[in-house]
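Assemble and predict.
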Amino acid sequence: SYELTQPPSVSVSPGQTANITCSGDKLGDKYACWYQQKPGQSPILVIYQDTKRPSGIPERFSGSNSGNTATLTITGTQAMDEADYYCQAWDSRASYVFGSGTKVTVL
Amino acid sequence: EVQLVESGGGLVKPGGSLRVSCAASGFTFSTYSLNWVRQAPGKGLEWVSSITRSNFIFYADSVKGRFTISRDNAKNSLYLQMNRLRADDTAVYYCASAPNYGDHPFDYWGQGTLVTVSS
C-alpha cells in the first residue's frame, strides 16, 4: 500500500508563513493536491497538480512537490486559514491516498 | 453553481445494510468521475470508492466485497450500497466529483451524510 505522512500540527503567527509537509515514497513522481477542512465543513480543494490554485483560492496558498515531499505554503497566514489540511495523491496500485492531516493553528 | 447533496445516512445495526445517495447539479454529470470519501469521527479522510464516466469501478480494500457504487446519469445521481456494515464503517460519507479518474483532484464535495453503525 502507499502512505502519505503529515505532521499532526503546525503553529504559525498571523502574517507569518506556514509550511505543511507531506511525505511519501517518490511522491515527486506523482501529482499532489491539498484540501482545507474547517470544523464542521466539507473539504475544499486549495492546490492541485502540485502547484495550481483553483479559482477563488487566495494567492497566499502555494504548493511544491519534489523528491519524496510535497509542501503546502501559506504566506501571510490569516486567522481564517486555521483548519485541517490534507494532502492527496493517486497511486496506480492503491488508488487515491490521503495524508493523515495537519491541524494549522494561528496563534 | 455545482452542488452535491448527500442523503440516506442514519443509524444501522452491525451486519445491516444502508444505501446513501448523492444528487448532483450544476455540471455535466455524465462526463465526470464520482467518488465516495468517508471521515470517521475525529479522524482523517479515507477514500472509499470511485466510478468513472465509463463505469469502471474501484474500491478501497476495507470495503471491497461489502459496498457497491453505482451511478444513474439520467437522474444525475450517485449511490453507495453498504452491506455487512461494521462499527468501523461509522463515518460521515462525502461524495466528490473529479474531472477524470486518476491524477485528477476532487474538485467539488458535498456536505456529507452521517452513517452510524451501532447496536
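The longest strand of chain A covers residues 83-91.
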